[in-house]
């Protein structure tokens, strides 16, 4: 239990830190952060605080889907956006393509490691992943269809609002799955529970 709690409390802020690095790179971010950036531009509220607010609103959508949040889900809403806000406040945007690419790649890798940590702790999915699994359970949609519909919708909406879409968005989309696939077995706490352990968790992002 101590290991699981530590993984959760390290993994969630680390996830936000990785997202913050991607924002500072300025080459494009993941769909949900594009959405948060767009809302931040329109409201004047920091992108990290918007991330927390969006996470809370998404969590409310769990109610009609009859999903039950875990402690990890609730902490996700509180910590990820706060870490994003702290990162973009402390670390200024970088300039120059080489530095931007390096910061982007560092951000994607950090997000992957952080995903392995908090998912492997098994305290519940993030609000966005729970939305997609809830749609699968209640509507019968395949998870990949639910993810595609939701993420394309928030990506387009965020882009129209002024969020950053670019090569970083593509790099994240193509790279995060394989990287989490590598990171998750390293931190999956179920792998150390003996013959009766449950299978390794499906790779998810916040």
Automatic annotation (TrEMBL):
This is Membrane protein. The keyword Transmembrane applies. It comes from Microbacterium panaciterrae. The chain crosses the membrane at residues 40-62, 74-91, 97-120, 141-161, 167-187. Keywords: Membrane, Transmembrane, Transmembrane helix. It holds the Pfam family DUF6198. It comes from the Bacteria. The keyword Zinc does not apply.
């Amino acid at each position: 239990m101590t290991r699981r709690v530590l993984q959760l409390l390290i993994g969630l802020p680390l996830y936000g830190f990785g997202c913050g690095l991607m924002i500072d790179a300025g080459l494009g971010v993941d769909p949900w952060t594009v959405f948060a950036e767009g809302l931040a531009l329109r409201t004047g509220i920091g992108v990290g605080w918007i991330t927390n607010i969006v996470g809370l609103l998404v969590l409310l959508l769990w109610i009609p889907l009859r999903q039950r949040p875990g402690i990890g889900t609730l902490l996700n809403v509180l910590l990820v956006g706060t870490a994003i806000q702290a990162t973009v406040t402390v670390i200024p945007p970088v300039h120059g393509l080489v530095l931007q690419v390096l910061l982007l790649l560092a951000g994607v890798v950090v997000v992957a490691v952080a995903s392995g940590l908090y998912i492997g702790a098994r305290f519940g999915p993030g609000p966005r992943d729970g939305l997609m699994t809830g749609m699968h359970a209640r509507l019968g949609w395949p998870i990949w269809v639910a993810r595609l519909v939701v993420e394309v919708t928030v990506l387009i909406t965020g882009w129209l609002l002024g969020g950053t879409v670019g090569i970083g968005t593509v790099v994240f989309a193509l790279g995060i799955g394989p990287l989490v696939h590598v990171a998750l077995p390293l931190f999956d706490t179920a792998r150390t529970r003996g013959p009766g352990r449950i299978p390794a968790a499906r790779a998810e992002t916040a």
